[in-house]
Amino acid sequence: MQSFVYDALPARVVFGSGTIAQLRSEVERLDVNQVLVLSTPGRGEAQAREIAGILGELSVGVYPGAVMHTPVAATEQALQVVKDQNADAIVAVGGGSTIGLGKAIALRTNLPQLVIPTTYAGSEMTPILGETKDGVKTTQRTLKVLPEVTIYDVDLTLSLPAAIAATSGMNAMAHAVEALYAQDRNPVISLMAEEGIRSLAGALPRITEAPQDHMARSDALYGAWLCGTCLGAVGMALHHKLCHVLGGAFNLPHAETHTIVLPHAVAYNAPAVPDAMGRIARAMGAADAAQGLFELAKRLGAKQALRDIGMPEEGIEQAVKATLAAPYWNPRPLDEAALRHLLTRVWNGDPPLA
Ligand code: NAD
Questions:
Q1: Nearest CA to ligand 1 atom 2
Q2: pLDDT at 43
Q3: What is the pTM of this model?
């Protein structure tokens, strides 16, 4: 066996159906009593108000101001509310956008965070915070932003529209896929990665066919937890680098961007990491990892071209330059011409190169 370092992160995870009933006792366990509940506006806010209702006198209110890609300006507004309400803890209910806001607050205040994820993005399991300022997204890794407790309640994910569940699930799979060929990969995380891919690849088509299939939703959330753990534990590569550049520069929707790029990044890396490709394909029950991911996204009805989610064609060149400007480890060295070719195919929605 190859030598490795396994650095496990602390995590308290409450998983199941109806687990929201344990929210009060989990908050009490943190020894806090002035909780601010965060969410995105609209539907997320209604859910946050229900959560605040469960907390009763332990909550100082709801702040529904979370925005995708965690703009610093939005965090500054939220910090003012934290100060005005004298909050002593954060409960974030929602997807990666809401969890990102909670982490950005925790970074600046050290407040404890209890997170209730309702998508599969996986941010709750990572010490990573990505923030956007002036169109540039920067990422940092610090244990200060790692949530203290995560409550996964399958029931709260049933309202996630099947189309969002599909791309959010593919976003989660991307973490596990890249964990399998990470520079600092280790056998424990690789086991989680394979199980995470297997669980999501099995669950997502069932959710697309029957959005209220409780077992499928449960399998997907379980897979998302595993994939999020992979993202938190080991470094990523080309796929995450590309999505990070594209999301920050063109404000593209996070999960859809991941879904579109993933098969192509995998095809690019395939010759360098045949073992990882074998494990991804095996977990998906596919003959080939990249083609299997492309076919899965198609079966889920997801968009497959960057041109269809708002990226301008001129952006291809900008993305090539930005990707090469900040070096990032990848199992296959980055080549400018190959990268341009890859991004052109991704923009067009062509299948990944065999
Ligand atoms: P999101 O949080 O923006 O949620 C997507 C949409 O789904 C929103 O409109 C939201 O209101 C809606 N939604 C969420 N849960 C719902 C539910 N149960 N029912 C109905 N609608 C629901 O998107 P996301 O993909 O979860 O997260 C993306 C963000 O998270 C990006 O900013 C990304 O950078 C960040 N992220 C960070 C990490 C990390 O480790 N730091 C990991 C993954 C993602």
A1: 95
A2: 87
A3: 0.97
